[in-house]
Design a protein that fits this description.
Strand 2 and strand 3 form a beta hairpin. The protein is built from 5 helices and 6 strands. Helix content is about 35%, strand content about 15%.
Length: about 230
């Protein structure tokens, strides 16, 4: 009996050591693959919208004159929700803890996201955006810089960002870490309209916030080398 207990104890110790490593290795492979698939579908949707309505820089977001923001929202929801295998959940005006952006979310460096100024945009978008919920549990949150009915996000407008997309690979499920399962993209002018949120990869490391990890993944051919 003693030998059996010792054996079980050793097995338990080995499992406790190896299982987290296996899970981490799986996420490093699976998450980039899932993100690439979602991002590719968004790009296809955006290209078609650009062909029909013109590129976002021609939509005149600043004048509230033609409702093109609503056109964009309706197009990506009504026409492409099926292709994206997603359901539209409308505007989000309630607790983000229930919708895939928990207040307990962490930055890549392990710091609470709610205490990081740069994460303000992320939490704000989750609280006041449009949501697509994928059938696989992933979420896409869209926050426009300006709405025809009012409500400006000045930090986006001043940087000529027309909308921000936050893709959460597994929605409400953990780890809820920016740069691991939460990634940011932005809508800008021109034909290549949906691009990574930051133009560099400087904060995609163990000491950084992780907001630039979407660009680093693309740069590294969708390998999570950080």
């Amino acid at each position: 009996m003693a030998e059996v207990l010792i054996t079980l104890g050793v097995i338990g110790i080995v499992a406790a050591i190896t299982i987290p490593i296996i899970i981490s290795s799986y996420r490093r492979i699976a998450y980039p693959t899932q993100l690439k698939a979602i991002y590719s579908k968004l790009l296809v949707a955006q290209k078609t919208i650009n062909d029909e309505y013109g590129t976002p820089d021609t939509w005149r977001f600043y004048q509230y004159t033609d409702g093109n923001e609503d056109n964009y929202t309706l197009e990506i929801i009504n026409r492409y929700a099926t292709q994206l295998s997603a359901d539209y959940r409308g505007n989000i005006y309630f607790n983000p803890d229930k919708m895939g952006a928990p207040s307990s979310a962490l930055m890549l460096n392990g710091k609470p996201a709610k205490n990081i100024p740069d994460f303000y945009t992320v939490s704000y978008i989750y609280s006041y955006g449009h949501m697509l919920v994928m059938k696989n549990g992933a979420t896409i949150n869209i926050r426009f810089a300006q709405a025809p009915s009012g409500g400006n996000h000045w930090s986006l407008m001043l940087n000529h960002i027309y909308a921000v997309f936050i893709i959460d690979i597994n929605g409400l499920s953990k780890p809820n870490i920016v740069g691991r399962d939460i990634f940011m993209f932005k809508l800008v002018g021109g034909n290549n309209s949906i691009i990574p949120y930051l133009d560099n990869t400087t904060d995609c490391n163990k000491q950084g916030a992780g907001l630039s990890c979407s660009r680093k993944l693309i740069k590294d051919d969708w390998r999570m080398n950080y």
